[in-house]
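Can anyone check this?
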Amino acid sequence: MAKQNAVVTGYGFYAPPRVVTNHDLEKMVDTSDEWISSRTGIKERHFAGDGETTSTMAVRAAKAALERAHMRAQDLDLVIVGTCSPDYLFPATACLVQSALGAERAGAFDVEAACTSFVSALALANGMILGGMARNALVIGAETLSRLLDFKDRTTCVLFGDGAGAVVLEASNASVGIESAVLHADGSKGELLYVQAGATKMPASKETVEQGLHFIRMQGGEVFKLAVKSMCDAAEEALAEAGVTTEDIDILIPHQANVRIIDAVARRLHFPPEKVFVNIQRYGNTSAASIPIAIAEAADQGRLKKGDRVLLVAFGGGFTWGASVMEWWGVPIPDRREKSIVDRAARTVDDLLDRVRLPS
């Protein structure tokens, strides 16, 4: 029996239409476009509008990914959402997405590893597919971080944005797929980047709200140093596990946290700028959504092509960090694509017959 690999057969993303520029933030907090741009590389970000949530944005990205994969939601085995800004403590955001998509037979759960959530969810889905527990998985990174921002704190409120990205991962006999995945954590440094109140250790109260304890707090200098070292270490480990070097990688897609972090990681790993994908200037830090959004944009722009080898690397609160090497597929599996076309044609015929069928 041929070895099964897990390949990406579809991808999609969604960014809310409300764009907040650095000049917009100048009116809200003591900052400037020059200050933000020079320190972070961010020029604008997207904020969720009224009625938009992490789950609704995840659904938009998921539908795009399913459409590209020529897959029906009813055929999904798993729905995994990586997020640190869920709609609720429970039910899981993935359950809301599963219901909205009509993925009736799929299991659904969330992964919370902050900005490393998507890489963690991808590794988990890959393992379940290789282990025979699932034939396919919809893996999503989605965040509504704008609702966790303190617009009196210029060190954090300028950094984050909202959005969602998704991929469909499927078992395939193709000689491509995810070649390595490594994950690490250090919980002793969690308080350098966290949201203190709102869960069970410090439940919501009048006092916690008045003290602003439900907002993101970060010690930026310490986070920067840890992020660069950890991302480089994880990248080198993932490359070694895959049996490749940086010369074999066609494109590096890092978590979009800060352009200075991205530049430092690329330099240490000896990646030239043309092999590094950067879109932080348009989206800011979308945490778990940043890598899948970047994947979708890179593929749409022709920067990520079938057969390319891609390195994903992330770092997030927790602290968590991880990396993955994969050979990019990015198109539907041929035999299932043909079946999907036949199924759609059959459903169209059934619909037409229903319309003309006379009542008995």
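Reply from J.R.: I decoded it. Residues 5-186+218-333 form a domain with the Peroxisomal Thiolase; Chain A, domain 1 fold (CATH 3.40.47.10).
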